[in-house]
Structures are given as structure tokens and as C-alpha cells.
Specification:
This protein is an all-alpha fold and 276 residues long. The chain contains 13 helices and two strands, in the order ααββααααααααααα.
């Protein structure tokens, strides 16, 4: 009966293992087209997988949130890492209309982040302001077009409008990645930190919209999008702040940061696996 005592002595790890099992099973059932009935705009399999993923996020904590000597927390962190490697169906079961609405819902945050970028140059050291302005010069036009296309897609979620969004989101993502790499060259520490934070705020929204577009795109379409992404996520990953991204996502969806942290990691993993 050791397994019973193990459950009793390590409840968090046991619960995490159960949630991972639920997520894994939900992913397999979803891939096989098994839905177990409708649930809102999705289905029961998607709902169970999403709830299990969210609860796993609530259990997971950053290493800094717990003493380093906590063996139980280290085990839980390992479980959470395994969960991130599983196919978590956060976006599975969504209709094109739902995804279109989600994309439009993100556009105010995109416009706000770009507005912040526009005002950031004045806060940087004079030697860095010009380089920052040049690196982010295309954000306004690209984000405005992205917003217009998102609204057009909501009004008419057709194949042609989806193609327009696919092309524009990759264009904007590449502009953000380019700007991140250029901002990383800023020598002044304060200027660099400020520049990177404002650019990443735009990038977080862009990646969220990209993930939504991926969820209603065919495999061939995603492959074409990824082929156009010449600056891959791996190149900018060292410069990204996961906590900042999680806070933006958590605020947008009105959810705990722990849940958003898992979602951000899943999106980044999914996009990297797709070739972005």
C-alpha cells in the first residue's frame, strides 16, 4: 500500500500527476476526434483538458516563490515542466467566429502597447533613442493594419480574410523579433531594459494573436507562415521576460498569473514546434 502513503505524504505532486494524466488523455481524445459531447462553443474533452491545465498552473510556482530546500516543490516543478511538453488543447474546439472575436479582443492591448513604444524613445539615453525609434518605426502601420484585418475577419471569418491575417501577423511578429535583437545591442543598461520591456509587451500580444490564428489554420498554412518567419523564436528567447508576458496575459483574461505562465509557455512551445 505504499502508493497510498505516497499520495498522503506528497499531495501536491500526486494532484499534479493526476492533472497531467487528464491533460494527456484529453489531448489524445481530441486528436482522435472524440468530444464526449458539446460544452459551450467547444466540447467536453477540451473543457476537461483546459480545466486540468489551469489547475496545474495554480499548483505550479516559480522557484523564487519557495525555499530552494523544498524537495516537494522541486518535484512539482518537474511535473509542471513535463506538462508543458504535452499537447495541451487550450484552443481546441474553438470556432472561427470565437477565434476572430478573441483576436479582436486583443487589439486594444496591441494598440496600447504600440502607443507605449511610441513614447519610449523620449525616456531613453539620447544615444539610444534614435536606434530604438528606427527599430520600432514599422510598428504603427503594421499594428493598425493588423487591427483592421482582425475586425474584417470577425465580420467575415472566411478563408481569404484568414490569409490576410496570417500574412500580417507574421510580418508584425518579424518586426518585433528584429526590434528585440536590435534593442539587445543597446549598451546603456537602463535604456536597454526599458526598450526591451516595451517591445516585449507588443510581442506578447502578437504571439497571442499568432496562436489564435494558428488554431484555425491548416497545417500547410501554418507551414507557409513559419517559412516566412526568418527570425525564429529561439533567437529572441534569451531576451524575453516570462513573468512580464504572463502578467499581460493574466490581466487580459482575468486569470491567475500562474495559469497565464503555463499558457504562455505552451504557446511559445507550440509556435517553436511549428517552425516560428
Amino acid at each position: 500500500m505504499n502508493f497510498i502513503s505516497n499520495i498522503w505524504n506528497h499531495p501536491k505532486t500526486s494532484v499534479a500527476g493526476l492533472l497531467i494524466a487528464l491533460v494527456s488523455i484529453a489531448g489524445v481524445l481530441s486528436q482522435q476526434g472524440i468530444t464526449l459531447g458539446a460544452a459551450g462553443t467547444g466540447n467536453m474533452v477540451t473543457l476537461v483538458g483546459a480545466l486540468a491545465s489551469a489547475l496545474l498552473g495554480l499548483l505550479a510556482k516559480d522557484p523564487s516563490d519557495a525555499p530552494s530546500s523544498s524537495g516537494g516543490q522541486a518535484k512539482l516543478g518537474a511535473w509542471a515542466l513535463i506538462a508543458l511538453l504535452l499537447p495541451l488543447p487550450f484552443l481546441g474546439g474553438c470556432t472561427e467566429t470565437t477565434v476572430a472575436q478573441n483576436i479582436v479582443d486583443w487589439t486594444p492591448a496591441l494598440q496600447s502597447a504600440v502607443t507605449t513604444v511610441d513614447s519610449t524613445a523620449a525616456l531613453l539615453a539620447p544615444a539610444d533613442a534614435a536606434a530604438f525609434a528606427a527599430a520600432t518605426a514599422g510598428f504603427d502601420a503594421a499594428s493598425n493594419l493588423m487591427t483592421a484585418q482582425a475586425k474584417a475577419y470577425l465580420a467575415n471569418p472566411s478563408a481569404s480574410t484568414l490569409v490576410q491575417i496570417q500574412n500580417q501577423i507574421v510580418t508584425l511578429q518579424q518586426q518585433v523579433n528584429t526590434a528585440l535583437l536590435q534593442a539587445a545591442r543597446i549598451v546603456n543598461p537602463a535604456s536597454q531594459q526599458h526598450a526591451m520591456a516595451t517591445i516585449q509587451a507588443v510581442g506578447t500580444v502578437v504571439n497571442a494573436i499568432l496562436a489564435l490564428a494558428q488554431s484555425v489554420s491548416s497545417k500547410s498554412a501554418v507551414a507557409q507562415m513559419a517559412a516566412r518567419a526568418t527570425i525564429k523564436m529561439a533567437a529572441v528567447q534569451p531576451f524575453l521576460n516570462g513573468n512580464q508576458a504572463a502578467e499581460i496575459v493574466a490581466e487580459h483574461y482575468g486569470e491567475p498569473v500562474a495559469v497565464a505562465r503555463v499558457q504562455v509557455a505552451q504557446v511559445e512551445l507550440s509556435e517553436a514546434q511549428a517552425g516560428f
